[in-house]
Design brief:
The complex is a heterodimer. Chain A is mostly helical. Chain A has 16 helices and no strands. In chain A, helix 2 packs parallel to helix 13 (about 345-370) and helix 11 (about 305-330) packs antiparallel against helix 13. By secondary structure, chain B is of the alpha+beta class.
Chain lengths: ~475, ~200
């Protein structure tokens, strides 16, 4: 038995040891996402910065790809984290899971190295197979796509087989069904077509149905587990809420896909269908806020893990504002005609991905660290608790600042480039060189720096939190 | 919470979740079949690749109250009329190059992509190309080496991406074809190159 507060893998079950590996890579990739985001942001202000060496396209691609992968690693880690707890038995294919982790990580390193060193290729199919597929968010070359599918299949097998052999819980059932969709939908993005309308139709199946449907349901499941762990919320309550959220999320999100089919050549009926269902998409996010806040109130904010609880609440609100409010603001076709493809989308993208997904992954990092250190005290009066509080402030404020900077730029662009100038090349640059746009980009950079500082503090905190604590974790009541 | 009421029960919501998800998905599959039939190349909304043999205009439609692409008189790209197969091969090569050079990591196509460079949905019709006569060659030259062609007060430039002459011509074909897609009026109020010059 090791001392309380010391990091020791004896404190973890098999799945949790694997989760720690996924989390470690996730944190590193989160850093890469920020670094390349800063480079790309700087290029808006200093266009010749790294021109011809690391062009905007490369920085931006690594920025968004690092994001997708670190979030995916966080989710996979979190499912492995809760798998043995929930199912009540050891993971069926843990060795395979470990092997796949190394393969997946190695593949990510190779893909990024090729992105940075080779960058682009000739207009041949071989480029799509080995360098880049050149489609936003899923730029990874085809060989990596196949690798991702294999990795996800093994992950799915581990989750399904472990729950199947042990016991099914509500959370387990939702997660396993969701993983089928997660894996199945990815296949829709793995073919080439000359027809750009057909291309984007299926591309959105992957992007929208991942981000606005299956990922949302996945984090709904994680949230349910998180509230039980941190607050001691009752299973019956969190699982009933989970079903409500799944019904609302898929009920609005699946046909909400239509809001991406306004302008890509698809028929006009999508204007009504997409507008209507996507306008409903914030509803489940409201439900999630109510649920989280209500549960915290019931338990009088007595949580066994303050940093995790803080980030779970940040998730509930971030998801609602970032995905819900910021999405709703420009989802109706009457406004989207002017905002589509401007910095509006970037503003929404930043707040939504952070609010909905970065937050809950960070919450799970804290849940993991508490257990890794022998279920150490992480409630009030935690030693060195300024670090998690300040990193949370800097990350959230930095993100809100970036979002607002981009929003100002987006407003200006919608008006000047789109409404007035009609989206010509000259109109585009008239908007880009407008002082309001430049100011928006300048402040985005400042707040980007703040966000990066928050990240550094977060990493420092994750490495040290609970180290000198000798008190055991607060026991939460389950009533 | 009163657990006795049916609307607050776990079972009710589990069933609702399953039915709502399945129902929505079935509707989506149905709409997908319909959409595919309407956006296959060679349909009204997404014209055949051989449309690049014709003049493309973007005109205001009084009934729909949006601008729509209109395929006009014969005006072959690079002065050579192509068969449907040849046109598809050329546009296909262009699309492949657009992916291989990762154009979407700076530009938007149909409004999707990144926002560091102009939208290319109607690039073929953009007044930047000054006149119908000059357009094709200007576009090819620009795509092959944009690094020395300053075109805005910001100093933002497109890098030289090693695009060959053949690839550049294919990209132009792809851009011309993309401008024929009926995008429900996106981008709104686009002021196209005066094609009567």
């Amino acid at each position: 038995m090791t001392a309380l507060g010391a990091i020791d893998s004896v404190n973890l079950n098999g799945g949790q040891k694997l989760a720690i590996k996924y989390y470690s890579v996730a944190v590193i990739l989160f850093g890469a996402q920020i670094a390349f985001g800063l480079l790309a942001g700087l290029q808006y202000l200093i266009p010749d910065f790294l021109y011809g060496v690391l062009d905007f396209s490369i920085n931006r691609m690594v920025h968004i790809n690092a994001m997708v992968v670190w979030m995916l690693f966080g989710f996979i880690g979190s499912v492995y984290w809760l798998l043995e707890d929930e199912s009540g038995i050891p993971i069926v294919g843990l060795k395979l899971g470990n092997l796949v982790f190394w393969i997946f990580t190695l593949a990510v390193i190779v893909v990024v190295a090729v992105y940075l060193l080779v960058q682009v290729g000739p207009g041949e199919h071989s480029t799509l197979w080995f360098i880049t597929e050149g489609r936003e968010y899923i730029e990874a070359p085809r060989w990596a796509d196949i690798g991702i599918v294999v990795c996800l299949l093994v992950f799915f097998f581990n989750a399904a087989a472990t729950f199947g052999k042990g016991k099914w819980t509500g959370i387990g059932g939702v997660l396993v069904l969701d993983l089928i969709a997660l894996f199945g939908i990815y296949l829709a993005g793995m073919f080439y077509t000359t027809n750009i309308s057909v291309d984007q139709y299926w591309w959105w199946w992957v992007i929208h149905l991942w981000v606005e449907a299956t990922w949302e349901v996945l984090v709904g499941g994680l949230m349910a587990y998180g509230l039980m762990t941190v607050l001691g919320a009752r299973r019956k309550i969190v699982e009933t809420w989970l079903y409500i959220e799944v019904a609302l999320m898929f009920g609005s999100g699946i046909l909400g896909l239509g809001h991406h089919y306004f302008w890509i050549g698809t028929p006009e009926y999508w204007l009504s269908i997409g507008g209507f269902f996507s306008a409903l998409e914030p509803v489940p996010l409201v439900a999630m806020v109510v649920h989280a806040v209500f549960d915290s109130g019931v338990h009088k904010m007595r949580s066994s893990n303050h940093p995790a609880m803080g980030w779970l609440i940040a998730h509930a609100f971030g998801n609602f504002f970032g995905a819900g409010v910021w999405g709703f603001m420009h989802t109706l076709p009457q406004i989207n005609l002017f905002t589509h493809g401007t910095q509006w989308s970037a503003s929404h993208g930043h707040l939504a991905f952070f609010g909905a997904y970065a937050t809950i992954n960070i919450a799970f990092f804290y849940i993991a660290l508490q257990k890794w250190r022998g279920n150490v005290w992480m409630s009030g009066g935690l030693i060195g608790n300024w670090k998690w509080k300040w990193s949370m402030v800097l990350l959230n404020l930095g993100m809100v600042g970036m979002t607002m900077g981009l929003l100002v730029a987006g407003y200006e662009q919608s008006q000047i480039e789109r409404a007035i100038e009609g989206s010509t090349w000259a109109g585009y640059f008239a908007a880009q060189s407008h002082p309001w746009f430049q100011q928006g980009m300048f402040w985005r950079m400042i707040f980007g720096g703040m966000f990066a500082a928050g990240y550094v503090l977060l990493v420092w905190d994750l490495l040290t939190i609970g180290r000198r604590e000798t008190r055991p974790a607060l026991r939460t009541s389950t009533d | 919470m009163t657990t006795g009421t049916w609307w607050a029960s776990e079972t009710f919501w589990r069933k609702t979740a399953i039915w709502v998800t399945a129902g929505s998905f079935v509707v989506l599959v149905f709409l997908t079949f319909d959409s595919m039939s309407q956006i296959t190349a060679g349909t009204k909304r997404v014209p055949a690749y051989s449309a690049i043999n014709h003049r493309i205009e973007y005109q205001f439609d009084e009934k729909r109250h949006v601008q729509v692409p209109v395929i006009g008189a014969e005006e072959p790209l690079f002065g050579r009329k192509l068969t449907e197969q040849e046109a598809e091969a050329l546009v296909g090569k262009g699309k492949l190059t657009v992916q291989a050079k990762n154009c979407m990591a700076c530009h938007t196509l149909l409004g999707n992509g990144a926002y560091y460079a102009p939208d290319l949905t109607k690039a073929w019709l953009d007044p930047f190309w000054s006149s119908r006569k000059m357009r094709e060659e200007l576009m090819v030259e620009f795509i092959k080496d944009p690094s020395d062609k300053v075109h805005n007060s910001l100093g933002r430039r497109m890098p030289k991406l090693g695009v060959t002459d053949e690839e550049a011509r294919a990209i132009v074909a792809f851009l011309k074809w993309m401008s024929t897609i009926d995008t429900n009026g996106f981008p709104y109020n686009f002021k196209s190159l005066d094609q009567e010059n």
